[in-house]
Design a protein that fits this description.
278 residues, alpha/beta, 4-stranded mixed beta sheet, 34% helix
């Protein structure tokens, strides 16, 4: 079942990476060589995963992607993959100076993965991407984003979206130090996930949200009591629990939307896509 969504009503702002994946019993230690059993490539990046998941549960051509790729084979393949999923790629910039983003991933015998990313063109600040986003804002109903691109690009696009009454969904990963104080004022929904460095810094997010009185939904949090700065206070914990209670309807929709999605990344992103219809 697909959501009834309009053309180009969902904008995804984020990174595209080509994942270089090796299955191996045990990753090599310094000075060692380990032989793997399988190597393959797969399109990835948090933004790319979100866009594909949103496209698969919405009407055709509902999703537009905003990002930066390099002028190379990986960039071409990443763009073609999105196009096969009926995602609008006309707002992807092609940089002729930096390579496309890549992630080298080792999957070991215990199903643990080791991700080493080089963001390449994804990390570049290019004001023209902000201008493209602003130019297309009139059709936009939902912005889905994360912390993958240059912080200033993400922040400016969230400001534009907020000014135009566009719902903003933020996955605050990967963890970034020294984010602007107003960074978390703009999203209606934030989706921190367990086993990510951002979870360890989650208390910082809660304090920012609580102090500003931001009316935000907090979803998909694991181990939210734990923090690098110590456990949440009782008052902070009550704030999180109240936001989680308010978000139960969205969580139910998330479970329905992701029932048949085997990949964890897609399962998470599918939730972010389905909230467009809530």
């Amino acid at each position: 079942m697909r959501l009834n969504t309009n053309k180009y009503s969902i904008n995804v702002l984020g990174a595209l990476n080509m994942d270089l994946i090796m299955n191996i019993d045990t990753p090599a230690k310094p000075g060692e060589t380990s032989v793997g059993s399988k190597f393959y490539t797969a399109p990835g990046g948090k933004g790319g995963n979100q866009a594909v998941a949103a496209a698969r549960i919405t009407e055709e051509n509902s999703v537009s992607f905003f990002g930066i790729i390099g002028e190379d084979n990986y960039g071409d393949q990443l763009k073609q993959f999105l196009e096969k999923e009926k995602i609008n790629t006309s707002n992807i910039l092609i940089d002729d100076e930096m390579h496309s983003g890549i992630a080298i991933i080792f999957n070991d015998k215990n199903d643990q993965n080791y991700v080493n990313a080089v963001y390449g063109s994804n990390a570049k600040y290019d004001e023209s991407l902000i201008k493209k986003f602003n130019k297309n804002i009139s059709q936009t109903k939902v912005l889905i984003t994360q912390n993958e691109l240059d912080t200033q690009i993400t922040l400016e696009c969230m400001k534009i979206a907020k000014k135009n009454n566009v719902k903003i969904i933020l996955d605050p990963a990967p963890y970034r130090k020294n984010l602007p104080k107003d960074y978390f004022l703009y999203p209606e929904i934030i989706t921190p996930k367990g086993k990510q460095p951002v979870t360890l810094k989650f208390r910082e997010v809660i304090i920012n949200l609580k102090d500003t009185g931001k009316n935000v939904n907090i979803l998909s949090i694991e181990n939210y009591r734990n923090s690098e700065n110590g456990e949440l206070s009782e008052e902070e914990l009550a704030f999180v629990q109240e936001r989680l209670r308010r978000s139960r309807r969205l969580l139910r929709l998330w479970k329905i939307a992701t029932r048949d999605c085997p990949e964890n990344a897609v399962r998470q992103a599918a939730f972010e896509g389905i909230t467009a219809g809530s």
